[in-house]
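Hi team,

As requested, here is the filled-out complex form for the adenosine-5'-triphosphate run. I kept the field names the same as last time so the parser does not choke. Let me know if anything looks off before we queue the next batch.

— J.
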Amino acid sequence: MTTPAYKRVLLKLSGEALMGDDAYGINRATIERMVADVAEISKLGVELAIVIGGGNIFRGVAPGAQGMDRATADYMGMLATVMNSLALADAMRQAGLTARVMSAIGIEQVVEPYVRPKALQYLEEGKIVVFAAGTGNPFFTTDTAAALRGSEIGAQIVLKATKVDGVYTADPKKDPAATRYQSISFDEAIAKHLQVMDATAFALCRDQKLPIKVFSIVKPGALKSVVMGDDEGTLVHV
Ligand SMILES: Nc1ncnc2c1ncn2[C@@H]1O[C@H](COP(=O)(O)OP(=O)(O)OP(=O)(O)O)[C@@H](O)[C@H]1O
Ligand SMILES: O=c1ccn([C@@H]2O[C@H](COP(=O)(O)O)[C@@H](O)[C@H]2O)c(=O)[nH]1
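And here is what came back:
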């Protein structure tokens, strides 16, 4: 059985996961492995848009931003996602994939601006679109950007690829007794304050009836399993 479960998906890649075992930045072997996973599903004919986080470089709420004006720190965070997007697109190019980076912040000498009809055209042409600079607004996150762009492009699902293999009753990195949900409703995830994604992203996806699959980007083959509709990770649903 080689038919994917989805025609168009929005993949949210964790910026932090890009570090691999390094303390910060982009680990070469890690980005190449992520791109190999992406190539596998692109070859299945799935239309793919990607939002990548910036936690490996800068986060507006990180200790390094303490004392800074929050909006300024957040713009730095958004620029960090532009760097990750460029690195990702370049790694995809080296792997023989065609990618286009579109930024929510005007930075035309570096990447083209986000224009929705153009993004839709690229997707229809089979190009992989990387949405950089989050939503373009401070006080948001790239999880919310994934929910927003996923809704705008008519994705059937948001695939949140992260360092843990699903949504747990508590942060599994802090609570070894936490157990994983096979599926959970948006309302329950929000009510329980589960921190795997921010509540704004959950609420937007809930209102747009856009399901989310949370799964491990570290686990080999997990992205393909998710795209094939296998029981992998946690489904967050209406
Ligand atoms: N209830 C929970 N279930 C699963 N993970 C949780 C939960 N609560 C907190 N987490 C944490 O949420 C993190 C989400 O990781 P991820 O790196 O994707 O976050 P992010 O902020 O989107 O990253 P980035 O900003 O770098 O893209 C996991 O690493 C996990 O430790
Ligand atoms: O829409 C957005 C998206 C991101 N930011 C800032 O960037 C960093 C990095 O994004 P992560 O989602 O944490 O990876 C984030 O902490 C914000 O500071 C933003 O302001 N608006």
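Two things worth flagging: The beta strands are 8-13, 47-52, 99-103, 112-113, 128-132, 157-162, 183-185, 212-216, 234-237. The mean pLDDT is 97.

Thanks,
J.
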